[in-house]
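Summary for the steering committee. The consortium agreed at its last meeting that each partner would contribute one worked example illustrating the joint modelling workflow. Our contribution is presented below. We chose a case with several input lines so that the handling of multiple components could be demonstrated. No manual editing was applied between input and output; the record is shown as generated.
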Amino acid sequence: MSNKLKTYQLYINGEFKDSTDTIPVINPSNKQVISYIPKGTKEDVNSAVNAANEAQTSWEKLPAIQRAEYIKKIAQKIRENADMLAKTISEEQGKVLGLATVEVNFTADYMDYMAEWARRYEGEIIQSDRPNENIFLFKFPIGVAAGILPWNFPFFLIARKLAPAFVTGNTIVIKPSSDTPNNAFEFAKLVDEVGLPKGVFNIVSGSGSEIGNTLAAHEKVGIVSFTGSVPTGVKIMEAAAKNVTKVSLELGGKAPAIVMADANLDLAVEAIKNSRVINNGQVCNCAERVYVHKSIEKEFTEKMIEAMKATTYGDPLKEEVDMGPLINQAAVNHVQSLVDKAKEQGATIALGGEIPKRDDGFFYAPTVITNVTQDMNIIKEEIFGPVLPIVTFETFDEAVQMANDSEFGLTSSIYTQNIDLAMRACKEIKFGETYINRENFEAMQGFHAGWRKSGIGGADGKHGLEEFLQTKVVYLQYDTNKQQ
Ligand code: NAD
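What follows is the complete predicted structure of the assembly.
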């Protein structure tokens, strides 16, 4: 192991801890090892969950506003270290530095937003059928939360799990993706600096099948909040089922974008192109398949090819670059196999469609595919790369039917100036989110939740906060001496 390389430690019960084995972390834009992270064990998971469980009792007793103060202090630390954090994310994940900076700042804002709920989340007092009785509905924390993370927005997703968990009185054990763990360990250092009570925040890295599975199957974990792929989500449900543990799953997407003949075409092209380019095409909520009205097919396709052609890619730390690499070789192979399959099934590769001949990183060329039909794999499966398949339609009903024909149900979008169609889209497009005349990007005060195989439960806003709460009803009869 080179001395120059960064090394990290587990963070359990307020202490940094070495591990016997390590895992190398690769920079996807040059395939070089950038760090070694601890390969945690089942015993480490056990220690972390036990620490979180012990810490939870006194953490819950703190007034919510005091827990919020810690969240705000972490947000402040994030802002103070924004440059270092953005560079760390960009280096290990491959998103361009500008986007990594947006991710860091958005994360700090998200922490502050969730902290504000401290004085706002409430129970209820319910009317009783009896005289001299109050029925109180309390909202209590669930206990220990396990946050299992993917690699595509690795830093923000820590906050999406931790901030609502903390403000509501839960403690947490985070398991980062082995592709992008460095930012999580940098986060742990900042948490350590704010003096959070021991055991409230823990981080254990290692393989999904061992560390992730042990966490999901742990009897002292009260909620598993997972973001990642559908197959892993299924495994997590299975593991959690053993203890009837609550799961909140944010899974994959295959977002349709419908472009009607009356759409503002430039707006639609720009937003859909960005969907395929942002984070190198690896965003769960971004448009992955586009349905274009037959009458504007030519114009739309030409503009899209032009926009994708103008997209530059390379080292994500360079300011002039629009797009970085895919996360790893398996991702490149997956994208290429879907493109090849589309060709085999009769589609036309109008732009790109190939792995660029360069030996630095896991790059994929911006790609536009035409003559695509609904039955092709490229329309059914998540691509997660800078590839856009275009399907045409004749009627709104046909477009909606094809959009809904998916096992995924995360996000969707439509571009139209027709208020009737926009309103019909709200009701008839069966997805957790529909964006009308705008890019796919959720607000922190909204609710991000997938239908069908895209998930269970959701994140953000009031409803995302409530995921980390359980209700208790208390019946209190008073003045009982008088009644006797
Ligand atoms: P993944 O499912 O491969 O891995 C996610 C995490 O699960 C990793 O930390 C991994 O180590 C862990 N894991 C793997 N096997 C496990 C097991 N058996 N038990 C417990 N944990 C296990 O996903 P990924 O490749 O890291 O991320 C990409 C996927 O995430 C895409 O499908 C994308 O759509 C989805 N995603 C969804 C959202 C959303 O909000 N819905 C957001 C971001 C990413």
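Residues 442 and 460 are 9 Å apart (CA to CA). The longest strand covers residues 133-141.
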